[in-house]
Amino acid sequence: MSQGMELYDVKVVRYFIVAAVAWSIAGMFIGVVLAAQLYWPVLNFDSEYIQFGRLRPLHTSGVIYGFVVNMLMGTSLYIVQRTGQTKLFNQSLSWMVFWGWQLVLFLALVTLPMGYTSSKEYAELEWPIDLLIVLVWVLYAVLFFGTIAKRKVNHIFVANWFFGAFIIVVALIFILNNLAMPVSLMKSYSVFAGAQDAIVQWWWGHNAVGFLLTAGIIGMNYYFIPKLSERPIYSYRLSVIHFWGLVGFYTWAGTHHLVYSSVPVWVQNIGIVMSLILWLPSWAGAFNSAMTLLQNKEKLKTDYIMWFFMSAILYYCLATFEGPLLAIRWFNMVAHNTEWIIGHVHSAALGWVGMSGIATFYYFIPRLWGKTQLWSNRMLKWHFWLAHVGVALYAIALWVAGIGEGYMWLAQQENGSLAYSFVEAMDFKAPWLFVRFFGGACFVLGLLLMAFNLYKTVSQEQGEVADAN
């Protein structure tokens, strides 16, 4: 990959990837702090700036917009060059996108702890920052599609289809969901109200997951998994079917968040049906990626980066099985608004997105800096097991807490009164919240090992390694 690197614009890619690593650690560290606060509320320190309600959107924004978007911007701008055999459409524009996006993240870091929020899930930033996001996103779209337009090959590689979809869909739904009437410099009110606002919000909220955390990551993986495996995509035709399946059905699934709400039943049913249909393209894509890795069984036996990718695929299967299941009415009645949903989200976010990002960092960063091997493979192995113990503890703890919590909320006495109080449900799940905290801490510790290992990798002389195994 390092050969011919001078033929492409890679400096801005390096900046994006370094920013992604930094935000992955910062965003997930804030998540561990929040998990600790849920078990030890005294860790709020009676401060309005670091209490749960203000740090939580900073955690989600840091992970989604800091870690994931920086990673997707960096990898997409690299992949579109390599697969199109051309430099970026405009180098100056690429730096405007980079610094513009870092400004967005800085403003989020300042305003969210101060309490400036629209209160919309994954869209908490207030209207002036939203305008900046739209401006930077349009510049990013011009840069990406402009580079595709000047490609020197006829074919558009499938990864770029996924990147293009995530750019377009996120832009359209973000703008619609954030339509608002400003009443001051840092306060606005949505133009939608009631059930309409809920429908539009979850059209956005679920597709932030569907296109930022799914389609974009799939596009990235469809390039790096074959590169790492040293084999072509198992079925290129299946990858295109995977693309159209996700684009065709994912945008309709968001209203499964509104089952048993005041939203019209037919709108709820669309979300349920589309969620169930999504099983097919999701598992087809997972099968395609897994078979790509399995084409090189010898390398898979010993390569922990391939294991990270395989783990990501397995967690993708789990999440895309569990999500449609949770959309079914009787299942939703037990699970929704419990810790189970948090466990589902994080088995996907840490298991699918996190493992994919980690594998990409380990494979991509050394090559971006012209290195051929990691500084420490032993540290890579430690990270693998820390990450997997962390995700397993986190998810299992919240599955148990959520199932128990859901049944306790629904349990009734013979006279129809509730069998358990809210406090009793909280007491039941308290030990599992500690396990959640411990699992998250393990995951973040692994990220710190990764950052140190990659820093040593890119800063050491070629061929200088810490261990041979």
Q: What would the average pLDDT be, to the nearest integer? A: 95
The CATH architecture: Up-down Bundle
Shape: globular
* Stretches with pLDDT under 50, minimum 5 residues: none
Q: What spatial order of strands do you see in the largest sheet?
A: 1-2
Reading off the top of the CATH hierarchy, the class is best stated as Mainly Alpha
Describe this structure in words.
Helices cover 73% and strands 2% of the residues. By secondary structure, it is an all-alpha fold. The protein has one domain: Up-down Bundle (Cytochrome C Oxidase, Chain A). It has a two-stranded antiparallel ribbon. A hairpin with a 2-residue loop joins strand 1 and strand 2. It is globular. The two termini are 23 Å apart.
